[in-house]
Amino acid sequence: MKVKSDILGIIKGRVLDVETHANINRLFTWDGKEWLKTVMEKTDTTIVADERILSVSIHGEKENQKSAIDMMEVYLQKLKTSKSKTLSLKGDDKPPGLMKELMLRYEFDFKKLVQESGLQCIELNHRLHLITLIGEDRSIEDAGVIINSVIESMIKNRKECKLQRTQTRDCVVCFCPIQEGEIYRLEVCGHPYCKDCAELQLY
């Protein structure tokens, strides 16, 4: 019976979710996913992350499960006490399409921006166009400088190139206008996407 119980424990696994860990969403950033890979390697466990319901299940021997959970809790606690800064990516002082431009330059999960600035992780609120930088003061400052350089570049390009107004619709991800004939739709929802954002949904 004990052997059966141990096997069932390995198969079932232990679950961490938003009810037990309020900031578990940070395990689903690029940095968080990389950390989960490290945890699996060090603890000989299998970790299944479900981003739809913000839950993580840990599978393996009970002692290994506990070690993995301990590592994740230390990681989440460190992020919880880290400094953060939230920036708006839209407004009168921001060029249209800033969020989209940042995603194209630094990848959908901002992996490249994390690596270049030394941040611990980045959170993006697509609906409100808010980006949260998490890490040490210097890293947050460096990331801010990078974002500002993108803003300045976009503003300069807009001044140099004036586009004629056309019949357009807005992309549901980046909210940039899409010209007729360049609208993409996913079969599952039918919403309008620009080409770049449609491709990002496929990865």
Automatic annotation (TrEMBL):
<protein>
    <submittedName>
        <fullName>DHX8</fullName>
        <ecNumber>3.6.4.13</ecNumber>
    </submittedName>
</protein>
<dbReference type="InterPro" id="IPR013083">
    <property type="entry name" value="Znf_RING/FYVE/PHD"/>
</dbReference>
<dbReference type="GO" id="GO:0003724">
    <property type="term" value="F:RNA helicase activity"/>
</dbReference>
<feature type="domain" description="DEAH11/12 KH-domain">
    <location>
        <begin position="86"/>
        <end position="153"/>
    </location>
</feature>
<keyword id="KW-0378">Hydrolase</keyword>
<dbReference type="InterPro" id="IPR056245">
    <property type="entry name" value="KH_DEAH11/12"/>
</dbReference>
<dbReference type="GO" id="GO:0016787">
    <property type="term" value="F:hydrolase activity"/>
</dbReference>
<dbReference type="Pfam" id="PF24471">
    <property type="entry name" value="KH_DEAH11"/>
</dbReference>
